[in-house]
């Protein structure tokens, strides 16, 4: 009887862990999708500001708006965790530089010459870089995810090249590739975020540090280019990118990385070109032809193929994470609470 009770207890533990894994995975995928959709709108907003607000100034004011939006919810806890922040200041400063200071400034710079649709398509290259980082970190990607990324990446290349796998990129496209590299590096770095620092505290701190690092360039831009006139056409996009694309999207993305890993969240990020194309059609009356629809089908198919969760028999495996259950043994349960 004692042996039977232990077996039943082991099965119950496995089933409970399987449910936790499915719930964590589902939430992670949902949060990654929310961030992707919101960020898709930020490319349209960046493009809308390209002829009225200098790139560095647009980036600086975006983070000022984001700081104001997040401060009421984060400033008290940030003060309480100030010693932890000081202890990990080097890591947080690097994350701020990559994800706040550099990334968005490069996107705005690209927006001077590159359409919103093209920016979204080029940014879809970042999940490949995220997967490379995870592989270098020792994680197995699995054949299914590799095939999914290959299919989605093929769709992106065909979409950018208008049916050709060897597209010719302009100077603005190179700014976007640099932005993709910066964002992928930031996402890979998130897996090493100190767990004792709260997600909202980390987000608020990176916003503040990123804005401080951007301040000297902002001053130079003001001196050389002058300011801009605040109007509905400039304030609206800045509020969108400051509140939604910064506060909401970054918080969602950071949590998704903690739950499912950068490589798997990156597969969901392949949806961005599709979202941008839809927004371009709705807001800019850009027509999407049969070839573009076929490319989007490849992207969506790759996303679904590469983001799957497998729960099988007596074991549980979540692709792209460190959570595995074999029989009654549970490995790295802290990932379920990240």
UniProtKB/TrEMBL annotation:
All residue ranges annotated as the EamA domain in the record: 27-160, 171-305
One family name in Pfam for this protein: EamA
Highest taxon above the source species: Bacteria
Major localization listed first in the record, in broad terms: membrane
Segments crossing the lipid bilayer: 26-46, 58-76, 88-106, 112-133, 145-162, 168-190, 197-218, 238-260, 267-284, 290-309
Keywords: Cell membrane, Membrane, Transmembrane, Transmembrane helix
Subcellular location: Cell membrane
CC terms in the record's Gene Ontology section: plasma membrane
Annotated InterPro entries: Diverse_Substrate_Transporter, EamA_dom, EmrE-like
Membrane-topology descriptor: Multi-pass membrane protein
Coiled-coil regions listed in the entry: none
PANTHER family tied to this protein: INNER MEMBRANE PROTEIN YTFF (PTHR42920:SF11), OS03G0707200 PROTEIN-RELATED (PTHR42920)
Family from the record: Belongs to the EamA transporter family.
Protein name in UniProt: EamA family transporter
Provenance organism: Streptomyces lunaelactis
């Amino acid at each position: 009887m004692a042996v039977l009770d232990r077996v039943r207890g082991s099965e119950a533990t496995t089933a409970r862990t399987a449910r936790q894994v499915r719930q964590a995975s589902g939430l992670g995928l949902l949060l990654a999708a929310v961030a992707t959709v919101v960020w898709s709108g930020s490319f349209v907003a960046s493009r809308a500001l390209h002829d009225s607000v200098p790139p560095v100034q647009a980036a600086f004011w975006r983070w000022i708006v984001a700081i104001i939006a997040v401060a009421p919810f984060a400033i008290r806890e940030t003060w309480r965790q100030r010693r932890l922040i000081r202890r990990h200041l080097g890591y947080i400063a690097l994350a701020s530089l990559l994800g706040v200071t550099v990334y968005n400034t490069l996107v705005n710079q690209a927006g001077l010459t590159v359409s919103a649709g093209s920016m979204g398509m080029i940014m879809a290259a970042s999940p490949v870089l995220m997967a490379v980082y995870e592989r270098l970190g020792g994680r197995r990607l699995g054949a299914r995810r590799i095939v999914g990324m290959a299919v989605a990446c093929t769709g992106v290349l065909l979409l950018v090249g208008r049916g050709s796998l060897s597209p010719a990129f302009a100077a603005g496209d190179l700014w976007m590739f640099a932005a993709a590299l910066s964002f992928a590096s930031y996402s890979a770095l998130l897996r090493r975020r100190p767990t004792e620092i709260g997600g909202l505290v980390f987000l608020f701190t990176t916003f503040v540090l990123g804005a401080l690092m951007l301040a000297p360039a902002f001053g130079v831009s003001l001196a050389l280019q002058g300011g801009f006139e605040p109007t509905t056409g400039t304030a609206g996009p800045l509020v969108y990118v400051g509140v939604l694309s910064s506060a909401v999207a970054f918080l969602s993305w950071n949590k998704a990385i903690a739950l499912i890993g950068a490589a798997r969240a990156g597969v969901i990020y392949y949806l961005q070109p599709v979202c941008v194309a839809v927004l371009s059609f709705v807001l800019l009356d850009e027509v999407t032809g049969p070839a573009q629809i076929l490319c989007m089908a490849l992207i969506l198919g790759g996303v679904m193929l590469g983001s799957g969760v497998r729960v099988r028999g007596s074991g549980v495996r979540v692709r792209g994470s460190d959570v595995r259950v074999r029989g009654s043994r549970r490995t790295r349960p802290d990932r379920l609470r990240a």
